[in-house]
Design a protein that fits this description.
single chain; 4 strands; alpha+beta; disordered N terminus; 2 domains; 114 residues; 4 helices; four-stranded antiparallel sheet; Surface presentation of antigens (SPOA)
Length: 114
């Protein structure tokens, strides 16, 4: 009798369904279920217009209306970071009185840079 139960469990696993999975879950590819599991994890997205280096005494002298020159030129792509990792470049756009980003290039990192 124990052999019959093992056979049934092995047949069930051979069909590609996980133990305890519902009929709907068994029809969804494993990769899609994996994405559902991480889909609600929050991430930090940053768009960097440019950077500037200055000494602390210069920083302390800045006041309202001061202009800080960045290392980018007008029209140059901005960097888009997700959790402090560069993932794309894009352009600034205006959407209903708000600033937005249009991605123009996806950055592919090789496994060595992880």
């Amino acid at each position: 009798m124990a052999d019959d139960q093992n056979l049934n469990l092995n047949e069930f696993a051979a069909d590609g369904a996980a133990a305890g999975a519902t009929a709907e879950e068994s029809r969804v590819p494993q990769s899609a279920r994996d994405l559902d599991a991480i889909g609600l994890i929050p991430v930090k997205v940053s768009a960097v217009l440019g950077t500037a280096n200055m000494q602390v005494n210069q920083l302390l002298k800045l006041g309202r209306g001061a202009v800080v020159e960045l290392d980018r030129k007008v029209g140059e792509a901005i960097d888009i970071y997700v959790n402090n990792r560069l993932v794309a470049r894009g352009e600034v756009v205006i959407v209903d009185d708000r600033l937005g980003i249009t991605m123009t290039e996806i950055i592919k990192n090789d496994a060595g840079n992880a």
